[in-house]
């Protein structure tokens, strides 16, 4: 199984690796922090150019990571969009054997938004992206790259180019999809940082958008109660290394867990099937039957167990790489899958309830959209302030999981 360092590790990472080098990103790609110039710092210690030898940390929001990178990146704009149609737990009770109390106690969810009519995922993504650009005061023509993090594109070959077209980016910036389900947005942030630090990009739009309602079996109360549709976006901009806002990250995948959460391809059945012959005379089934994706299949108990184990471990690894502790975090922002998972991770990291960002009750699990959607609401409501440090983590199908320590603004 590959991790961020390119080394082989067990499916569940071991936290205490003090004797191993930490890894981060530079303009040239990945590097070991143990081998880079002394101008880069991972802890509060001696620094250069007139900066005090000791930084006094009086509160999490005032804490900073005094690192020196030749090129940094920061998050300066955000936006989100959701469908108009709201489906409550009571609405679901009309079509499946459940009720509001049963759903809320097990998940924390009250409502979710679902695409309907002429709504499209692409239009939601464009709406969210435009709001992020407006907040960042960046014109579409100044965007260098668009990363569409989605597992439910509206075109087999990807939705990102259509977003680029709809935004009116005249310079034809590169736009491509990232498929990593609920971890997609965090991986999009990491990818944006790599493009900026290593490729010279200036403005990168990272969009998380999914329409899982199209792949839900609405007669299966084990899955249909969980998912909703949404889009969220952030504008990541190049900056001086001293202003860098992505302190550290940790990314993983384990294909062995795919059996617990998937929406695999299936062959469509048909009684009318011609049997033809190949060029060598052997009988073959041709033309092949068309394929489509199945509804979401999930082993809830295994996914719950997986998330509660790997997410806090990943965040602790990212904090260690950044030279921070959980007390330095202003906000914990997890993929909005289940409130019990969010609470369990917060408890493991000793993060109090008042420092948790959660909007799960209103939207359910929106996959790659959940983190940017919750972030946008928290920023626009005034909860998250410029300079606040956020520990974010995504986890889900693949199985994949990823965490990042970042600063807003």
UniProtKB/TrEMBL annotation:
<dbReference type="GO" id="GO:0004315">
    <property type="term" value="F:3-oxoacyl-[acyl-carrier-protein] synthase activity"/>
</dbReference>
<keyword id="KW-0808">Transferase</keyword>
<comment type="pathway">
    <text>Lipid metabolism; fatty acid biosynthesis.</text>
</comment>
<dbReference type="GO" id="GO:0033818">
    <property type="term" value="F:beta-ketoacyl-acyl-carrier-protein synthase III activity"/>
</dbReference>
<dbReference type="GO" id="GO:0009507">
    <property type="term" value="C:chloroplast"/>
</dbReference>
<keyword id="KW-0276">Fatty acid metabolism</keyword>
<dbReference type="InterPro" id="IPR013751">
    <property type="entry name" value="ACP_syn_III_N"/>
</dbReference>
<keyword id="KW-0444">Lipid biosynthesis</keyword>
<comment type="similarity">
    <text>Belongs to the thiolase-like superfamily. FabH family.</text>
</comment>
<feature type="domain" description="Beta-ketoacyl-[acyl-carrier-protein] synthase III C-terminal">
    <location>
        <begin position="319"/>
        <end position="408"/>
    </location>
</feature>
<dbReference type="InterPro" id="IPR004655">
    <property type="entry name" value="FabH"/>
</dbReference>
<dbReference type="GO" id="GO:0006633">
    <property type="term" value="P:fatty acid biosynthetic process"/>
</dbReference>
<dbReference type="Pfam" id="PF08545">
    <property type="entry name" value="ACP_syn_III"/>
</dbReference>
<feature type="domain" description="Beta-ketoacyl-[acyl-carrier-protein] synthase III N-terminal">
    <location>
        <begin position="176"/>
        <end position="255"/>
    </location>
</feature>
<keyword id="KW-0443">Lipid metabolism</keyword>
<dbReference type="InterPro" id="IPR016039">
    <property type="entry name" value="Thiolase-like"/>
</dbReference>
<dbReference type="Pfam" id="PF08541">
    <property type="entry name" value="ACP_syn_III_C"/>
</dbReference>
<comment type="function">
    <text>Catalyzes the condensation reaction of fatty acid synthesis by the addition to an acyl acceptor of two carbons from malonyl-ACP. KAS III catalyzes the first condensation reaction which initiates fatty acid synthesis and may therefore play a role in governing the total rate of fatty acid production. Possesses both acetoacetyl-ACP synthase and acetyl transacylase activities.</text>
</comment>
<keyword id="KW-0275">Fatty acid biosynthesis</keyword>
<protein>
    <recommendedName>
        <fullName>beta-ketoacyl-[acyl-carrier-protein] synthase III</fullName>
        <ecNumber>2.3.1.180</ecNumber>
    </recommendedName>
</protein>
<dbReference type="InterPro" id="IPR013747">
    <property type="entry name" value="ACP_syn_III_C"/>
</dbReference>
């Amino acid at each position: 199984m590959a991790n961020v360092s390119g080394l082989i590790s067990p499916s569940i990472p071991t936290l205490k690796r003090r004797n191993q080098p930490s890894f981060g990103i530079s303009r040239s790609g990945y590097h070991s922090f143990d081998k880079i110039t002394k101008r880069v710092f991972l802890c509060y210690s001696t620094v250069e150019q007139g900066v005090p030898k000791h930084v006094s940390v009086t509160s999490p929001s005032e804490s900073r990571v005094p690192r020196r990178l030749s090129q940094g990146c920061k998050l300066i704009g955000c936006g989100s969009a959701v469908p108009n149609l709201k489906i409550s737990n009571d609405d679901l009770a009309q079509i499946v054997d459940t009720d509001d109390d049963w759903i809320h106690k097990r998940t924390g969810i009250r409502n979710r938004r679902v695409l309907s009519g002429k709504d499209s995922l692409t239009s939601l993504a464009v709406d969210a992206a435009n709001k992020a650009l407006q907040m960042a005061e960046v014109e579409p023509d100044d965007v260098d790259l668009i990363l569409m993090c989605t597992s439910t594109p509206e075109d087999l070959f990807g939705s990102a180019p259509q977003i680029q077209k709809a935004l009116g980016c005249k310079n034809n910036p590169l736009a491509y999809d990232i498929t990593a389900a609920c971890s997609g947005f965090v991986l999009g942030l990491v990818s944006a940082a790599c493009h900026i630090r290593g490729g010279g990009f200036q403005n990168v739009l990272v969009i998380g958008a999914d329409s899982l309602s199209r792949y839900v079996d609405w007669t299966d109360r084990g899955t249909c109660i969980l998912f909703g549709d949404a889009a969220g976006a952030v504008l990541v901009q190049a900056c001086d290394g001293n202003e860098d806002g992505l302190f550290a990250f940790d990314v993983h995948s384990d294909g062995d867990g795919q059996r617990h959460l998937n929406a695999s391809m299936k062959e469509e059945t048909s009684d009318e099937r011609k049997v033809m012959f190949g060029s060598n005379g052997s009988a073959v089934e041709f033309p092949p039957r068309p394929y489509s994706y199945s509804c979401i299949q999930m082993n809830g108990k295994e996914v719950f167990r997986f998330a509660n184990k790997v997410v806090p471990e990943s965040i602790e690894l990212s904090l260690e790489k950044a030279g921070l502790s959980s007390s330095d975090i202003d906000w914990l922002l997890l993929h909005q899958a289940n409130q019990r998972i969010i609470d369990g991770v917060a408890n493991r990291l000793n993060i109090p309830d008042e420092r948790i960002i959660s909007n799960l009750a209103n939207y359910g699990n929106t996959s790659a959209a959940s983190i940017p959607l919750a972030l946008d609401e928290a920023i626009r409501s005034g909860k998250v302030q410029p300079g606040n440090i956020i520990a974010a983590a995504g986890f889900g199908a693949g199985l994949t999981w990823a965490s990042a320590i970042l600063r807003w603004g």
